Amino acid sequence: MASEGDRRSDPEVERRSRLLGGFHFHGEGARGVAIALLSTAVFLTVVIVAVTQSAGWPEVKRTFFDWGDISSSFPDIARAFVLNVKIFLVCEVFILVFALVIAVLRSLPGPVFFPLRAFAIVYADLARGVPTILVIALLGFGAPALQLTGVPTSRVFWAGVGLILIYSGYVAEVYRAGIESVHPSQEAAARSLGLSRFQALRRVILPQAIRRVIPPLLNDFIGLQKDTALVAFLGVIDAFNQAQIDSAATFTYGAYLAAAALFVAITIPLARFTDWLIARDRRRRQTAGGFA
Amino acid sequence: MTARRRIFLAAAATLVMLLAAVAAGCGSTKEASTGTAGTTSASSCNKSDLQLVDAGVLTIGTDNPAFPPWFGGTPHKPWQVGDPRSGEGYESAVAYAVARKLGFAKSEVKWIHVPFNNSFAPGPKSFDFDINQVSFDKKRAEIVDFSDSYYDVNQSIVVNKGTPIASARSIADLKPYSLGAQLGTTSYQFIKDTIKPTKQPSVFPSNTGAVQALKNKQIDGLVLDLPTAFYVTAVQVPNGKVLGQFPAEPGGEHFGMVFAKGNSLRACVNQALTKLRSNGTLKQLQQKWLAKATGAPILK
Question: Among partner residues A16, A141, A244, which is closest to B212 by beta-carbon distance?
């Protein structure tokens, strides 16, 4: 777009540009676009014809793609979706903090800290090794069954705890990758300036580490948003459970599409944003010689 | 430049036309698919003429675990809690009675595990019919076919003894409590449309989850069909009690067996059910397996 001004100054170029309706095709560009459009058209046609000609299509169309089912279930599902949004917003804050603690524990040097390092390693292994739905089921039904006074019985609370525990395992690994990507000379330099080990971590290493891992952090955040649907296992009515209810009442699946649309509406913008951050980061590294 | 522009325009026009054609194609399949919903008259209910998933065998689906009082006996793998193959329990007994009327010996009946959600999934069915306490509903009947009623069911509510909700005596008394139901049951609709509680109700994907939440007092009351309610209080929630049953809704609610849309077997099963009803077999089986499911006070 920087060259826009130069082109505007040339009346001939400006006229062509107007004729082309805003598309600036020069040389190979127009052919490229035409080929892309044609191949997209052919691809879509093949897929759509294959699907719509299949024997089961009328039944699938009726049970999955009935606009009446989708639109009539949408308001209830959208209302229930508020719960999903609340859960992932609250959980994400706790995950970012808790995971950082785990990651820092794991990167502590020296034999004295072995138990803490071991704890962090075992924790990350377990959290990433156990299926999320199992943890949520165990906590959501198990913890209240203890009937200890002061222990909450709220299923949303325990589902949240489950998500925080699981996702902290993943996010701690992301942080660790960031911490380990900071060259050891950075810490050595910080220490030689008289900073304590903690100060070096806090002022020199973590700021660099976290900036580098923001894209993968957002990636896990997207995963968390989707996994909030697991709260349905505990009977709580979130967007997915509401969709299940509608589906079971009518024996159709339009409600699932409505729920999927809501999740996609928030996860896709975040995914694009993540990609943009990664691209920006790459550009910066290329221009700044490898160090952010 | 103009030549390239023409290529571009041609490509764009092709794309638009293809999409339009596809959209038109989608529209036209609609009429074709709605025509199949009509009634099918079975010309013959001779065993040899029946259209079956597995020739010579009546394949019946139900969920696992198979809970009493619908299924009884000692469970053998893969069945849990109850065993449909035992002939014990109301649904097992009705299924075998229907099978006998259709000419199938007990050994010619095969039971398969069909989770509730799979019973109505599109595509070829793995069962001839599914018997799993599925309530008839007009919307559902647009997607699958139901047999006539084999049990007219009332909804009821189970609570923990000694909790505040246990002193409720009417539907209005139930309003302030947190209530739960199992996914796919009409109990949730009943909570939402009739009780209209002030707290958000819960819906559990399984009986086990719903019962655990009641035991944990994470919900105050569990709404479910009356026979299941008696099983829940007798076995699953020792401190539970059936607070009462709800009066039948206008038109009543009934369980029907689930068939693939347009399956001609349904007419034959309905013939069998009619005979079993008129000769008193259904009533006898209800007394045998569901007798306990009567003496609950009615909540209005």
Answer: A141
Provide the ipTM. 0.75
* Percent of chain B residues topping a pLDDT of 90: 67
Selected residue of A26, A53, A59 to mutate for chain B interface (largest B Cβ count, 10 A): A59
> Rounded to two decimals, what is the model's pTM?
0.77
In the predicted structure, residue B82 carries a pLDDT above the cut 50: yes
Structure tokens that stand for B151 in this block: 């049990």
Question: Which two tokens mark B27?
Answer: 């529209």
Question: How many residues make up chain B in this entry?
Answer: 300
In this structure, whether the domain defined by B47-152+254-290 belongs to CATH 3.90.180.10 is answered with no
Q: Which residues of A touch B189 (CB under 8 A)?
A: 249
Task: Could you please state the CATH topology (level 3) that the domain comprising A81-239 is classified under.
Answer: MetI-like fold (1.10.3720)
| φ and ψ of B281, to 5 deg | -65, -45
> Is B188 near chain A, with CB under 8 Å?
yes
**Which CATH number among 3.30.565.10, 3.40.50.2000, 3.40.50.2300, 3.40.190.10 corresponds to the domain B155-245?**
3.40.190.10
Give the H/E segment covering residue B153. Answer: strand B151-153
Q: Write out the two tokens for A135.
A: 């943890």
Is the Cβ pair B8, A44 closer than 8 Å? no
Q: Could you report the per-residue pLDDT of A145-177, keeping only the tens digit for each? A: 888 888 888 999 999 999 999 999 999 999 999
